[in-house]
Amino acid sequence: MTELSDQILMTSPRTGKISRFRIVWQIFIPLAAIAFQVNVPLFFRYLSYLELPLLVTVYFSLMRRNPIGGTLIGASIGLLQDALSQQPLGIFGMVKTLVGYFSASMSIKIDVDNSMVRCALAFFFFFFHQFLTWVLQRALLAQPYEFNATQTLLFGLLNAIVAVPLFLILDKLKERG
Questions:
Q1: Residues 55-89, buried b or exposed e (16+ Cβ, 10 A)?
Q2: 11 confidence band (pLDDT: 50, 70, 90)
Q3: Which one of 1.10.10, 1.10.1760, 1.10.260, 1.25.40 gives the CATH number of domain 20-171?
Q4: Cβ atoms within 10 A of the Cβ of 107, count?
Q5: Rounded to an integer, what distance in angstroms lies between the CA atom of residue 136 and that of residue 142?
Q6: What distance separates the 2 farthest-apart alpha carbons in the chain?
Q7: How many whole angstroms separate alpha carbon 88 and alpha carbon 94?
Q8: SS3 of residue 87 by DSSP
Q9: What long-range pairs does 17-24 form, CB within 8 A, spacing at least 24?
């Protein structure tokens, strides 16, 4: 492998430091992301493609580097988003639970401090989130739910672009120590 790929992909479990945040930030940031998701598209329709609760779930799960913690983060953010949105209760909870688990699991093997890796993971998990939402809507609820792959790829790219500066801002809120 090349030196760059050796830096990004680890062959042994990641021994990086688990990031810690003050409890205030762990509560406020997901609530602010959900409030954004629920309220801002009502006034600015063109911002409805941003999935900030998903990006916050991915970020906190990546930084936690613990699949159980990532699962709990995803479940709590997803269920709270379900409660405040027009979606059937549990859809976002299930999807974000899986996103939290998989992103935390990936952070064990991959260097998630690299901005390009974060961008790629945000893109991947946006697509995964949308696809899994479509599957659950169709399979569990037997409801029609549009899944346009081209549009989802474009919105995934836009979310990945937003994720890079968002993750850098959230990095500033880490506890020092």
A1: bbbbbbbbbbbbbebbbbbbbbbbbbbbebeebee
A2: very low
A3: 1.10.1760
A4: 25
A5: 9
A6: 50
A7: 11
A8: coil
A9: 18/63, 18/64, 18/65, 18/66, 19/63, 19/64, 19/65, 19/174, 19/175, 20/174, 20/175, 20/177, 21/60, 21/63, 21/173, 21/174, 21/175, 22/173, 22/175
> For 21, phi and psi rounded to 5 degrees?
-130, 150
State how far the Cα of 123 lies from the Cα of 172, in Å rounded to an integer. Answer: 22
Q: What is the mean pLDDT of the chain?
A: 88
Q: How far apart are CA 22 and CA 130, in angstroms?
A: 30
Percent of the chain having pLDDT more than 90? 66
